[in-house]
Amino acid sequence: QVPGLTKRFSQGILERLESGEVVIGDGSFLITLEKRGYVKAGRWTPEAVVEHPNAVRQLHMEFLRAGSNVMQTFTFSASEDNMESKWEDINAAACDLAREVAGKGDALVAGGICQTSVYQHHKDEARIKKIFRLQLEVFARKNVDFVIAEYFEHAEEAVWAVEVLKEAGKPVAATMCIGPEGDMHDVTPGECAVKLVMAGASIVGVNCRFGPRISLKTMKLMKEGLQAAGLKAHLMVQSLGFHTPDCGKGGFVDLPEYPFGLEPRVATRWDIQKYAREAYDLGVRYIGGCCGFEPYHIRAIAEELAPERGFLPPASEKHGNWGCGLDMHTKPWIRARARREHWENLLPASGRPFCPSLSKPDA
Ligand SMILES: [Zn+2]
Question: Which GO terms describe its cellular component (predicted)?
């Protein structure tokens, strides 16, 4: 804890949002821990919580230090359909890790579930709801503060997830991994948002699959859909940390660079400041990230919105606003970069003279 830099919270997620506070989410786990050697791409399951708890703990710590107000349990795909008998231990251990770190900064713990691997095959509502319920029972036992249904590409399955999550009596957030074209059955973002709120979600939005710009475009459509239906909900956005202007309906997974060659697309911290500002101006108050969204991106959200929030995260001790730390540099041309105009207007070169700037999605 750094006196003066952090603010201690004691309220739940809905109290915070209802009082107009900005809640900063966390960022990338699977994609980041794959790069660090703890997750295998393909099945993307989080067994690292039991195999390498220190690696998961460290990443939670970095997000907390960067300003995250929510520690999401690392339970993506940790469901019975993906992990057989190991799923229960992994969910329990992920809750303990998230709670341990959250307690060091008074952050909230959110239990997270995602779309199943089986919906696309049989759409068996009872069977799929049972898969969600098993994870929820662990979250309830571990007393998480709220629950998130994330990464759904089918509105119907997302609605089932919300209906199950409501059973625990905790606030429910629901985000879909869709772009402006809507879900896999052409349900528009506005219609998706309405369905999720009608099913009982208090917070709705998008996560993953698309970069900051497209995610905000989708959020705008969700907001308009809710307004047209006369519904009220808190808005949440957790975009990729990668730029995806060339994506089709399926998002970044259809790009030939996914998942091992995405580095040239990484957003800068300045891109993320812009994202945070635009999300805020749109009325989104739960702002975080998904794949590729590193702790320094989370810090960028906290720094951009520091005037509104009135405080900075601990990690800002090591980061001058708009590069001002560079004014200590010995070389005058580098010192000259210690200003907002430089970073705000920079068009970063890729350093790859033979590369195209856009790709063609496979699907
Ligand atoms: Zn993601």
Answer: cytosol
Check whether residue 297 and residue 231 sit in a common domain. Answer: yes
Q: pLDDT tens digits, residue range 29-69?
A: 999 999 999 999 998 999 999 999 999 999 999 999 999 99
Q: Give the pTM.
A: 0.96
Domain assignment present for 355 = no
Is-contact 334 326, C-beta < 8 A? yes
> Is 291 assigned a ligand-binding role in the annotation?
yes
Our CA angle for 175, 180, 183, nearest 5°, is: 60
Q: Quote the ligand 1 centre to 209 CA distance (angstroms).
A: 6
Q: How many CA atoms lie within 13 A of 38 on its CB side?
A: 21
β pairing state of 203-207 and 286-289: unpaired
Q: What is the CATH number of the domain that holds 161?
A: 3.20.20.330
**Dist. CA 213–CA 275, nearest whole Å:** 7
Within a domain: 198: yes
Please provide residue 117's backbone torsions phi and psi, each rounded to the nearest 5 degrees: -85, -5
Is residue 324 annotated as involved in ligand binding? no
